[in-house]
Structures are given as C-alpha cells and as structure tokens.
Sequence to fold (577 residues):
Amino acid sequence: MQINRTYAIQTKIIICICLVFISCTNFKAYFNTFYNAEIYFEKAEKSRLQNRGQVLPKVAVDNYKKVIEKSKIVIDEFPESKLRKDALLLTVKSQFHLQEYNNAQGALSLMNTEFGSAVQFEAAFWSSMIKWKEGKVQPAINDLSKLINEDNASNKKAKIFLAIAEIYFDQKMISLSMDNLVKAAEYIRDPNEKGQIYYRIADISFKENNLDRALEAYKLVIKNSETKKQVQEGHLKSVQIYRLQQKLELATKSIKNMLLDVGYSAIHSDLELELAKLYAQQSMIVEAINRLESIVQDYKNTIASSEAYYLLGQFAISNDWNLDAALKYFQMVPKENNKSLFIDAANIRLKEINAYKDAQLKFSEWMQRLEETDSLKANPLTKDDKISLNKTLYGMAELEAFHFNRASSGMQYLDKIIELSLDTSILPKALYAKSFILETEGKDSLAFELKNMIINNYSKTDYALAIMNADSTFSALDLNSDKNLVLAENKWLNDPILALDKYKQIIKIDTLSESSAKAAYFLAYQYDYKFVKADSALKYYKWIMKYHQDSEQSLFSQKRIVFLNNVLSDSAVINVN
Fold:
C-alpha cells in the first residue's frame, strides 16, 4: 500500500510539472510573439517619423504588416492572454498607418466591446484619428478637444495636442498647428521628447519665416534636447535668425565665440559661412570674399564649401562682372558636394551665362554686318534678319536686367531695339520691358510715355492688355481679341457660320496678339479638315506664317502649306489633262 501511495504522489507531481511546463511553453510562445510585434512596431514608427509628411516608406509598410500578423496570432490562438488588449491596440495603430481604416475600426470595436472602460481613452483617441482620415476633420478635432477636458494624465494630453497639431498641419493651418505643438510640449515631462517637439516647432516656423517663434523654439531645443546635433543646429539657426533680423552685432559675437570653442567644431564650416554672409550684408565685400575663399580651401567637399562656391560665383557677376570666373565657381558647386541645395541654382546660372556669351557673339556679328551695310548704303536687313537681331538684343537685355541685376546695362540693348525700329513683335515687348525697369527705378513719367506708346501703336498686343488691366488710367479698348475669341468659341457649336465671321474679325483688326494667332489657326484648321477648302485653309496658314512665324501654330502651319500646295498643284494638272 505504501508503494502504491508513493507511486500516486509521484504521478501527481509529474503531471503538475508537465502542466507547468506546458503552461510556461505557451506563455513563452505568446509572449515572444507579442514581443516581436512590439519590436516591428517600433521599427515601423521610427521609419514613419523619419519620413513625416512623405509617402510611407516600404520598410514601414512591411513592418506594420508584420505587427498585424504577429498580433493576430496572440489574439486568435491565445484568447485568454493578458496581452490580448495590447495586441488589439497594436493592430489598430498599424492598420491606421496602413490606411486600412475599415479594418482599424473593426479591431477598435472588438477592443472596446471586450475591455470597455479599460480602453476608453485609446478607443476614443483612435476613433477620432480615423474620422480625420475619412475626411471628417472638424468632428475629429471636436472629439479630441473633448478628450483634453477629461481627467487625463499629462502624457495623454500631450498625445492629444500632438494629434490636433498634426491634423491642422495636414490642413495647411500652420499657425494653429504650432500652437498645439507648444501645448503638447508643455505637458511632456521627458526633456529629450520636449526638445524633439520644440525642434519641430522651430524647423517649421523657420521655413514659414516666422522668425520670432523659430528663435524662441530653438532656444528651448538648446535647453531641452539631449541630441548634440540638434543643440548645435539650434545655435547655428539662432545666429542665422539674428542675421535675418538685422541683429548683426549679436550674430557676429555669437559666431566668433563658437568658432573659438572646439565643442562646436562640427559646425565651424557653417559658422564661417554665416560670418561671410554677415560681412556681405554689411557691404564688407572684400572681407566676405576672403572668408568664402578660405572656406573652399579649409572645408573641402562639404555642404558649406559648395554654397561658398555658389556665393563666389554670385560675387563674380555682381561685384566684378567676370563671367569666366563665375562659370568656374558655378561649375564647382555640384562637384564639391552632390547633396548641396545650390546645385539647381548653379546649373541655371551656368545656362544663363552660356546663353549670354552666345548672344554676345551673335551681337558682335550683327554689329559688324550693320556697319558694313551702312558704309555701302545698302538695304541691310531682311524680315528674317530683323527678327533674329531683335531676338539677340532682347535676350541680352533680359539676361542683364532681370537675371544678372544689371538694369542700366540691359537697358542699352532695349534702347538699341527701339533705335533700330525693327518692326517685329519684339518691339512692343522691348518697350514694355523698358517701362518696367524705369518704373522700378522711380522714373514714372518716362515709363508712362512708353506705356502710352504701346497703347497707341500696339493696342492689340498682350502688353497693351497688361498695361490696361494694371492701370485704370489707360482706358480699355472696345475691341479686345481675347474677349472676341471667347465669344467666337462659344458661338461655334450653335452657329458656326457666325463664329467663323467673328474669328475673321479678330485677324482683320489684330495681327500681333496670341489670340489672333489662335483665331487664324482655328480658321485654317476648319477649312482644311471640316470644309475641305484647300485654298481657304492655305490663306490662313500663310497668314500665320506672315504675322506669327515664331508661334506654336507656325510649325504645323508650315507643314500644311507644303502639303496643300502640292495638292493644289496636282489638282491643277488633273484639270488641265
């Protein structure tokens, strides 16, 4: 009997051990599964936040899907698990970020049904977020605002304010977004998290040119952030703001103090660049250029040296008018650092300089030709010559006056167009450009005379229309090609014959505006394809080539002229035979 009793006890112990082992195994299985889900969620969140405002990265998408997959195992296979609630919440969050709003709402309802008051805050919060994404913006904000008024902990209030800030930012309501970010930062206790929020406030405010708020936020970044890079950037941005606010002495003093501190060596190149800009802002051009030249030598292949080359190129144009030197500097910008924000601007400058040099060569050739023909007292220019010369002159004028900021020099080429009186479509354009420059220089009476000349002599051009729209002093003309073109287009479907007559009226009184080119092309096209009257079509195609040789319509018109001439020639031969 004793043996049997001993055996029974041993059996019970073994069974208990097995049950405990099985239970531990199950616990380990679902705990590990949930733990993996949390790890994937953290990875997904990190990727999403790094790309805030952009398309969700693929790595984040993949990780959110893994979160849902792992959470589903916990929910389905371990229904009694204490981690079920947390697994459901992870699922809701992941589905939300994957834009699976119906699925997220379903998981939210299940979580709410099973756990009730235990998930009251999370259920209300994520329900509001789903409303926002479904286009119910104001109801979402209202619901989140109600949550703030409830007795919630500071971290929950911070979470709500962050969500409201994100919604306002999505709606382009930047000021309200910033207000809510500030409120969120007030409730956050962790200094580093607080610093992160202030960094975002500062960054957005700086981009929005709200310098006062940006400066205040950068100071709080410096105070709270535990990230050395952010603290240093806070100091750098602060001196940039001082410079932009004309607090030049404060900016200069701050920069020089940091340049003496090895703790700021990581941003010394940027500080040197700021100092060069400060010198330039105070018209200390020699000092600015010297500082920029030292940057390209001391900090090679950096973002700062790339920008320094760009600024040296700008000085070569504005200070020395040395285009060869400017070309060399601008060519160095992409070579110095391929992540530079000034690469596109430098490439534009290179195109402008090369275009100007080409125009200079053409201009020299034209001037030589004009001198030779004047000495022979011959008719110097054909119509094509006039168009080509005017284009060259206007191209140089535009580049100098409006791209290189050399208005006086650019005006000389405009005056040359006016002096030669080459009656092409570029002449009113030159008059208009000159009036614009004179007005910018405060010479209003001279600008008025030129505008009057455009109204009287080129009343149907776009330049005359622009003048009349901008200045009520110049009375609008009754016959406006743009308005007549709209009337003709409206008439076409109901009364094509009357519409054709209106199109013809436009080109009868207007040979210069873009609207007249459109009207002539419409007539040519309809006679060509709808009415199949080759001679009439040819008439309007030729009109386009005569008055609008450089228009969009001219290329096709030229091709149709060749084709229709061949058709008419063939028809004539057939008729004779």
Observations:
- The mean pLDDT is 84.
- Residues 390 and 426 are 6 Å apart (CA to CA).
